[in-house]
Amino acid sequence: MEMSIESWFNLHYYGFGHGADGGGYDDDEEEEEDESEAEEPTPKEPIEEVDDREFPFHDDVFYINLKGPRVRTGFDNLPMEILLNIFRFLNGVDRDAAALTCKRWFDAMGYREFLDEVCFHFEEVSICDGTPPIALFLRSFRHFSNIKLTRVQFNGYCEFWDVFGEYLREITFCNCITLTKSKLTMILKRLPFLECLALEEADEFFKTWTPVELKRIEPVCRCLRKLALRKSNAFTVDHLYYLVAMGPNISALEISKCLKQIDAPTRVKILTTILTIMKMRKKKLQAVDFSYTMYDDLFLKQFAEIENMSLSQISLSFFERAPIKDPGIIDILRCQSAIVHLDLSSFLNLTDFALIEISTSLRLLKTLKLNGCWLLTDFGVESIYKLDRLQVLDLSDCDKISDRGFMKAIVDRRRDCMSQLYLSMLPGLTDSVILKICLTLLNLTVIDFCGSDCMNDTSVQFLFCYLKCLRILRLNGCVKISDAGLTGENLPVAVIEIWDTQTTFAICELRSLQELQLSGCFKVTDFTLTHAFRFRELRELNLAHCVQISEPGIEAMSLNCPALEQIDMSDCFHVNDRCVVALAKNLVRLRSLKLVRLPLLTVASVDALVEYAKALRYINIRGCPKVPKDAPERLKKIATLRNIPKC
């Protein structure tokens, strides 16, 4: 029996066509079976095809009968596990498009992992059944797990919470002035499986919530795992006790960017309450985030004294004066040896001795963020080499670090697991370290060299040669980069030279690139956009302050980068109406466009966006003197637009 390659694959994937020991059939056995079948012909059984698809498409279906159950395979009934793995490689927009293919692919979009990546943001709307967008959502056939409400108006009872409440897992209230305690209670009662509650800029809410009745706690959210308070200063001790009592199983506590505009005695009282809550929940607590919240070294000392508490994630920032000898942060690091993710961004008093303690005690560490820790030097950074599980490292704005410390910390050992590296604003690094990074960290997907002098035409060529897995590349403010480095043409010295063969590389060889930041690279011209910008997956592009780009380059870029969704061309003085027309016509996925201080734009650009940019959501078109004052009214015709710009 002849069989196509794809049929053979489908057959063996599902386990048919194998003998009892896992091998194939022998030729003699096949001949005997053929003879027996020829002597005693049996009528063929009718093949019953069950087709429960609800989409009007036909795909290749293979029927195979080798003494086993009949197998019907095709792209629409691919095993769900394989389909989910394929979807993980796609971004949110691509997954939404793929979900329209067939019902099975649409069902895959309902997988929890994909739902959590999408946040529906309701901003400055009325939460009322009879008005949009709530009325539209009530007619929707899909559900969602994450929503954010910003400056919304709550008007009485709303059926929205009864319809979608059981699916919601995370909800954020941001600056909702009309939110009251009774309204919050009514909403939370309809969210039985809520896992994360966040209150952001909620001072008005806390001011109206008085008095706080601690004897009657409602509702009790037993599925709640995370409580977050952000950018709030008006909450009291009673508010904290009440909110924590609502979630008896809370494992993550976030109080970030808080306690900045209150008097010292009140702040001390609240900090003491936070420590008391941590002691009460120490057996269940796994993550705390106190970044950019005002506290002192005494708070850190008492934090370290909590016994039998094992945290896996800590985020801290520190702005006060700390004792030089035995600061509180070192005590915390000695006690919490199970930390996996550590964020100490803007911890201004972090010293080399604290970093050495991190490298010695936290051997399970995967994420280490030290952005803005300006006291660190090569002496402390060298100790990072002990962290062999490190996946994410952020040393941005640690301006005392040089090549010597970084080489010993990262480059001197193999690190296949590291995927993200942030080295912006480091004047001590030179271009000699770039090649070492590329040869050591071959699996990097995110790299940030914003404002670093080490990036030039030669060093950027090393990135294109070795780091083929890059998805995010940030080179803002790297003023030494020019067309020669990005295209590989007219370089004074080739990157690779073997005998008489010289090899150079272009940025288009980063085929997986999804975000590219080139703001301030003023040497970049249309030559790069025309010859090197050919990206099938590029979604975000920043060309602000690239003053030499103009119409030919932008038109070529719009044709060769069809997946672009976000573009920033602020202060590109040669951008004219024809550039905007090309972007609006050719980029069908364009969602965010920033056109600030462009003197050549006129009303023609506004009309082109209204006519062609059918998916545009955000636009910033300020500082364009020739754009008429009625441009905001014209832009209102774009049905998908979320903001009305002020020209």
Averaged pLDDT: 86
Q: What is the number of E strands? A: 23
**Gross geometry:** globular
How far apart, in Å, are the first and last alpha carbons?
Answer: 72 Å
Radius of gyration: 30 Å
The portion of residues forming beta strands comes to 5-15%
- Tally of DSSP helical segments: 25
Sequence stretches where pLDDT stays below 50 over 5 or more residues: 1-73
Helix content: 25-40%
Major beta-sheet overview: 19 strands, parallel
**Class by alpha and beta content:** alpha/beta
How would you sum up this structure in a few lines?
Keywords: Ubl conjugation pathway. This protein is an alpha/beta fold and 647 residues long.
General description of the model:
This protein is an alpha/beta fold and 647 residues long. The protein has a domain at 80-113. Helix content is 32%, strand content 12%. Strand 13, helix 17 (403-411) and strand 14 form a beta-alpha-beta unit.
SSE layout and pairing:
Layout: H1 5-13, H2 27-39, H3 80-88, H4 92-98, H5 103-109, H6 112-116, E1 120-123, E2 126-127, H7 134-138, E3 146-150, E4 153-154, H8 160-164, E5 170-174, H9 181-189, E6 196-200, H10 203-208, E7 226-230, H11 237-246, E8 252-256, H12 264-280, E9 287-290, H13 297-304, E10 313-316, H14 328-335, E11 341-343, H15 352-361, E12 367-369, H16 378-381, E13 392-394, H17 403-411, E14 420-422, H18 432-440, E15 446-448, H19 457-466, E16 472-474, H20 483-487, E17 496-498, E18 501-503, E19 515-517, H21 526-531, E20 540-542, H22 551-560, E21 566-568, H23 577-586, E22 592-594, H24 603-612, E23 618-620, H25 631-635
